[in-house]
Design a protein that fits this description.
This protein is of the alpha/beta class. It has two domains: 64-242 and 307-495, Alkaline Phosphatase, subunit A, CATH 3.40.720; 252-304. Helices cover 31% and strands 13% of the residues. The strands form four sheets. Strands 3, 6, 7, 8, 9, 10, 13, 14 and 15 form a nine-stranded mixed beta sheet that branches. Strands 1-2 form a two-stranded antiparallel ribbon. It has a two-stranded antiparallel sheet with strand order 4-5. The termini are far apart.
Length: 497
Amino acid sequence: MTSAPHQTGCCSTSRRTFLSDFGMGFTGLALGAMLSDDGIVRAYQPDVWTPPTGESQFVPRTRSVIWIFLSGGYSHLETFDPKPALNKYAGKTFDDTPLDNPLDSPLHAKRFRSVAAQEINVRDVYPIIYPMQVGWKQHGESGMEVTDWWPRLSRYVDDLCFVRNMWTTDNDHAAENQIHTGRHRLDETQPSVGAWAHYGLGTLNENLPKFVVLGGPTRSDTRQSIDSYYLGPQHAGVPIELDPTNPLPFGRRQEGQSADEQRNEFEFINELNELTAVEYPQDQDLRARIRAYELAFRMQSAVPEAVDLTQETAATANLYGLEDDATKLAGQRLLAARRLVERGVRFVQVYPSSYGVWDSHQKLKENHTRLCATIDKPVAGLIHDLKQRGLMEEVTVVFCTEFGRTPGLEQRAGGKDGRDHHPNGFTVWLAGAGIKKGEVHGETDELGYHALGEGHYVTDLHATVLHLLGLDNRSLEIPGRKRLEIDHGRPIHEIMT
């Protein structure tokens, strides 16, 4: 005989649920605590808030993003925003020129936030103008200026859109996290832009992660750049190695364990999770956790195939520079990025060079000459490859760094041939789906110091990418985690098609 649920007033509790919650209490508490720590469990709030459905909120302009990040801060002045005034007034102080002294501009205090006390801070206030260390030319039908360190990429300027009025606030390398999370290191950490994309959208390939990371995070203290925090760990970036025999660190079967044994193990875990899901049918995030276990098993066969670059032709390998030791690493990572978006990965975050190498406090000419040569061919190869495969209409490429370099000569420690960190104005570029071609948006002043006008804080770049994916950045809120206005940014509609 089946007993009817005991009812008291308007509330009812089945015996099954009662025993699950109380008779098996310690197991339930343990599971609940783990899910709560992960940011999974939340009270059911009908008609108040629901998580994203996985569908775009409006017609998307792109389906996938390749986000290329150069760690250390490349010089915007010696790459994509050349300034003749630096040569004209080389060796003079800001006050010795007829130009306005940028240190007197209200923009300096507005956009500069040093961890060190301002009275002892010397960064970004060097007054002696340092000349450009490379020549430049206009390229393409658009006549966009690019320095001579980019001979291959400059052939594709008519496919690119430069945003020359970016700015941020951190003057140290925590800005690497800031450009991905939107927050200064003195503030509460926020999820990364890739995590928001993962959180808002469904998958295009059930066998691959939605958010993949190649070559990063560059160090343990840059984990924030791919992390998801209160969105839950299932939305964080998945670092993948380019070794087809072991692309997923800690994701291999144990030695001596057969595929059938591992499958049985995953099925047992899944059964336990399904039992809990019966008791909590409204907990959609528990369902997501179950799918994560299933994905982990499927990835073991799908990921090795996706990063097996030996499947590519010799012509493609040459296009990305895989035959040259100088360009091989960047080329492999960018080629793998193309293969991943081709297979439906939503967001691929690529670090083509190692931590901080673009940080040219000294020997800027020597460092940037060498570094540009390591990625010029691979990045140009990526643009060419996307075009020839018809993927420029489906994939958006973002090319960025954490800040620019100072127009003034860095004088610390007797410096004589480098530039310091410069958050007040720098350049990024975008290309591909939803982006105007051969365009320059915004500008810095004649010395390349300040992003003029309102400029674009780094979260404007986030909002732009999410908008292209069909997501309203402002709607991606979590109960109890209301973000600041600056966290949302605004899409740069001026650069979109």
